[in-house]
From TrEMBL, chain A:
Key words, A-Z: Elongation factor, Protein biosynthesis
CDD domains: BTB_POZ_EloC (cd18321)
Gene3D superfamilies linked to this entry: Potassium Channel Kv1.1, Chain A
GO molecular function: translation elongation factor activity
Family membership noted in the UniProt record: Belongs to the SKP1 family.
The keyword Transferase is assigned to this record: no
UniProt protein name: Elongin-C
Entry function: Essential component of the SCF (SKP1-CUL1-F-box protein) E3 ubiquitin ligase complexes, which mediate the ubiquitination and subsequent proteasomal degradation of target proteins. Controls sulfur metabolite repression, probably by mediating the inactivation or degradation of the metR transcription factor.
Chain segments annotated as coiled-coil in the UniProt record: none
Record-level GO BP terms: ubiquitin-dependent protein catabolic process
TrEMBL record, chain B:
Classification via SMART domains: LRR_CC (SM00367)
Domain of life: Eukaryota
Segments of skewed composition (Basic and acidic residues): 24-53
Pfam families recorded: LRR_6, zf_Tbcl_Rhp7
Region annotation (Disordered) ranges: 24-73, 131-155
Residue ranges constituting the DNA repair protein rhp7 treble clef domain according to the UniProt record: 93-130
Biased composition (Basic residues): 57-66
Protein name: DNA repair protein Rad7
GO CC entries: SCF ubiquitin ligase complex
Length: 133, 567
């Protein structure tokens, strides 16, 4: 993977070990992820096309992000990262439409998801909504 | 084998008997076969039927039926077409027909009821079906979806005005969900401040901020509270803010009518050390109480913003500010009916100011503004003079000579400033490029000769060129709303592509008559990061293609902006 064409897909891993394989294009909406996996960056994430979000589960646990402090083998699946991935696809599907139905957000994880969205830069002001080269 | 022969004989007998009644049944079979889904139809017949069905699918009746059907259930196109086909080929009154339910033969009348599969029913079955149908409740229409059908364009335009196009951000979706389920939220946890602010804004927009939701934003550790619509908050709730959060540093409250003397009394009784105090619409608060507040706690204040106070902030208040607020950096007094030239002149003595904003009913005179600007001139970062019809070129000159660190400048509705004055301001100005310029409605107004502007009053071509030459590289926001004497040539020259404006985000050029499609396309080209352009009343904008990601508001046609391109 170190050389040649980067993979079309990216693996996102939640803090509790759930893996989500997402289209690379779809993750570009997040400036954070696209920065991590940019082949020019030389980060480990870019080499393996794999980002581990330990903190996204952590947010589930105690409502605020203690970054990089995670208990291995937690029982929590990661509904938050699941929703984030769903959003990536939602965004990718409708990126060229003007008239878009709103995505449903489960009320229970609303605040955690909001914190995750903020962490990933998925805010109107910071989102990559413009054309890129 | 023998037994088999016997049955064959019997079948032959039955066949011959049925032959006798064949004539009678022939016509019926014909109808039936065309009507039934028909596996045993001949190929040419089914081809004919296909043709007829295709014709029906293109007809108006089909579309109407389909629309009705879509609302309550999802028939597919074929079913609907077949139903119409069957109706059209139904026997005319007077003919014989077999009932769809009980198969009895009956005479078709104009009152024969249609059965569930499109065929006709005999009188008894018809009556029963009619009775059943009457018992059914009238079907409710499904609520209209926002994204399609009538009203979607309006919704889309409304979202455009909010500055969002296409998919909403995940954060916005979350905040909206939260706003829909306020009653379930107990606390917002430790969200970062900008997210809490975002939530507060949406809550206020939807009129959700009241006594029951205010606690969400209040914790003993809260240092900043921003209330964008406090109309539902009573005196007690406002007092509770200061009770719960004794360490409050930044207080911002809009539309807080109930912020009365009693609330201020409570604030004065506490040892709060507020750095920002922003009050909007609190016109029940008396001037004396405000002065008392300034005297007691003014020394901590860095920002003081008071809006819509009718007659309760006047010239004396400026004196109090000068005396008791030595650290004040930002002073904004807007929609004020009491402050006069005297107070504006007194601002010259408040030399620590970095941000000054005024919008006064007693519109200040040029000498007063000159004096005020000269006081804190070199330090001023923001100068906002809204609705100053009496300000003339001498004000611009004063800004030119004194201001050295300005980044935001607003002068609106001046009817005396001239093009030369603006050109002189922006030519060889030692101030670094500005990031925010608002010169809305700086234009010549005359009922007698509306088209002529011989004196070049207002911001015209030369001033505009000088402005862009000075501040263009750093400018993020430009408002030249209704500066209608800027020529097409000036626009074309400025946005010709010779220089690019990488910082430009929002551009308001409404009611600039000379803006054309070409000018707009030049703007899109030379401002690579532009997000929003306002073109209300630019009647020469006709058919411009907007690159995706840019919002063009106010296109003078019913269709609105047409987006082009892909992400």
């Amino acid at each position: 993977m170190a050389s040649g064409e980067p993979s079309k897909y990216v693996t996102l891993v939640s803090g509790d070990g759930f893996e989500f394989v997402v289209l690379r294009e779809a993750t570009k909406v997040s400036p954070i992820i696209s920065g991590m996996i940019d082949p020019r960056s030389g980060f480990a994430e870019a080499r393996d096309a794999r980002c581990v979000f330990q903190e996204i589960r952590q947010m589930m646990n105690n409502n605020f992000a203690v970054f990089f402090l995670t208990k291995p083998g937690s029982l929590f699946p990661s509904p938050v990262l699941d929703k984030v991935v769903e959003y990536f696809h939602y965004w990718y599907q409708y990126r060229d439409n003007d008239d878009v139905p709103d995505m449903d957000i489960p009320v229970e994880i609303c605040l955690e998801l909001l914190a995750a969205a903020d962490y990933l830069g998925l805010d109107q002001a910071t989102m990559n909504t413009r054309q890129w080269s | 084998m023998n037994g088999n022969d016997g049955t064959n004989d019997f079948l032959a007998l039955v066949k011959s008997v049925t032959m006798l009644t064949a004539d009678d049944k022939l016509s019926r079979n014909k109808i039936q076969s065309t009507r039934d889904e028909g596996e045993q139809e001949s190929p040419e017949k089914s081809a004919q039927k296909e043709k007829a069905l295709a014709k029906i699918k293109a007809s108006k009746a089909f579309k109407k039926r389909k629309k009705d059907a879509d609302e309550d259930s999802d028939f597919d196109d074929d079913e609907i077409a077949r139903a119409i086909f069957n109706e059209r080929h139904a026997p005319l009154p007077g003919q014989m027909e077999n009932c769809e339910i009980c198969d009895k033969r009956f005479t078709v009348t104009p009152y024969s009821v249609q059965g569930p599969n499109g065929g006709l029913l005999c009188a008894p079955c018809g009556r029963q079906i009619a009775k059943e149908r009457q018992g059914e409740k009238p079907k409710k229409k499904a609520p209209r979806r926002q994204t399609a059908g009538i009203g979607s364009r309006r919704a889309a335009q409304s979202r455009l005005l909010d500055g969002s196009v296409g998919t909403l951000s995940l954060a916005t979706l979350c905040v909206q969900t939260l706003a829909k389920n306020v009653e379930l939220a107990e606390s917002l946890g430790d969200l970062p401040e900008h997210l809490v602010d975002k939530i507060a804004r949406i809550f206020s927009k939807r009129r959700l901020l009241g006594p029951d939701t205010l606690p969400l934003f209040l914790q003993p550790s809260t240092q900043t509270i921003r209330i964008y619509d406090g109309a539902k908050l009573g005196e007690q709730e406002l007092i509770s803010i200061f009770q719960i959060a004794p360490g409050l540093k930044h207080f911002k409250a809009r539309c807080v009518v109930q912020f009365k003397d009693e609330v201020m009394d409570y604030v004065l009784s506490r040892d709060t050390k507020m750095e920002s105090f922003y009050l909007h619409g609190a016109n029940l608060l008396s001037e004396d109480k405000l002065h008392e507040f300034l005297r007691a706690q003014g020394s901590y204040l860095q920002n003081l913003q008071i809006y819509y106070t009718d007659k309760h902030v006047g010239d004396e208040t400026i004196e109090f500010v000068r005396e008791h607020c030595p650290n004040l950096k930002r002073l904004k007094i807007e929609h004020n009916q009491k402050l006069t030239d005297k107070g504006v002149k007194a601002l010259a003595n408040v030399t620590c100011l970095e941000h000054l904003g005024l919008q006064l009913e007693h519109s200040p005179s040029s000498p007063a503004i000159r004096k005020a600007v000269s006081g804190s001139g070199p330090n001023l970062k923001t100068l906002s003079l809204s609705i100053v019809p009496n300000a003339d070129d001498s004000v611009l000159d004063a800004i030119h000579t004194t201001c050295r660190s300005l980044s935001k400048l607003r002068i609106t509705e001046s009817h005396l400033m001239t093009d030369d004055g603006f050109a002189a301001l922006f030519t060889a100005w030692q101030n670094p490029p500005l990031t925010f310029i608002d010169l809305e409605k700086c234009r010549y107004v005359s009922a007698m000769q509306p088209r002529q502007n011989d004196g070049l009053v207002g911001l015209c071509s030369n001033g505009f060129k000088a402005l862009m030459a000075h501040s263009g590289p750093r400018l993020r926001y430009l408002n030249v709303h209704a500066c209608r004497n800027i020529s097409r040539e000036a626009f074309e020259e400025v946005f010709s592509g010779a220089s690019s404006y990488p910082e430009m985000r929002r551009l308001k050029i409404s009611f600039c008559e000379e803006v054309t499609d070409y000018v707009l396309s030049c703007i899109f080209r030379s401002c690579p990061n532009i997000k929003e352009v306002n073109v209300f009343g630019c009647m020469k904008v006709r058919d411009v293609r907007v690159p995706r990601g840019i919002i063009l508001v106010g296109v003078p046609n019913a269709q609105g902006m047409i987006t082009e391109g892909k992400h």
